[in-house]
Amino acid sequence: MFHPQRRFWLFAVIVLPIVTAACGSRHDSSENYYMVATNIKLPYWETAQAGFSSAASQLQVRAAFVGPDTYDPKAEKQSFEEIVQKKPAGILIAVADAALMKDSIDQAIASGVPVVTVDSDSPASKRLFFIGTNNHQAGLMGGKRLAQELKGKGNVVVFTMPEQNNLAERLQGYRDALENSQVKIVRVVDIKGDPRIAFDTTTEILGKERDKVDAFVCLEAQSGQEVATVLNNYNIHNKVVIAMDTDAATLDWVQKGVIAATIGQ
Question: For residue 43, what pLDDT band results from cuts at 50, 70 and 90?
């Protein structure tokens, strides 16, 4: 089973290479490092923040975790640009919209501010490097498990946010895993960072197309528990749910048997 402490230590060590990139082997307590994300109140990011803060404490530098409480790529961009103006020693950013952030990241690099992307990349930008899950592999893993659960045949609805590079890679992994099977992705739903869209869409599907959908795939952390709640409310037990990440609510639905599997990073 995935342990949240592993993610804590991942983010604890991420700050080390950015310190090196910023100032070689020398650093002092006046250096400021920032981590930027969206939906920062999610358990996933609260764990990351703990690791980031722990590393900063060990290195005796300053660190701050910032970004919108909701999924808001434009607000993330604004936060990032405001931080760049402060000339920090380095920035980590989980990119919500790769195209939107590209120029801002390039401008930060040009101004001498080191930028590392984490969790979700902006691969066309000039960021120093990316640290995160092999998301295509995560999608392949999920797709293989999905085909197994459906015994090789069925219709699937996917919940995602297309602008996020990591989620796009996960979806491609699912498509590649299912390419030669009779498991078909019949609908891809953009939840726009709002888990209520997953809840409402699942409710709509079960009301109108219950027999036409056999499974739900959730490529981000929030949708799985929403889908599971709807299925539980309707007392439906013959649908497969593959979720993402290992927050407490998702694991609870796995233990109850409503979510068939979840993929931990």
Answer: confident
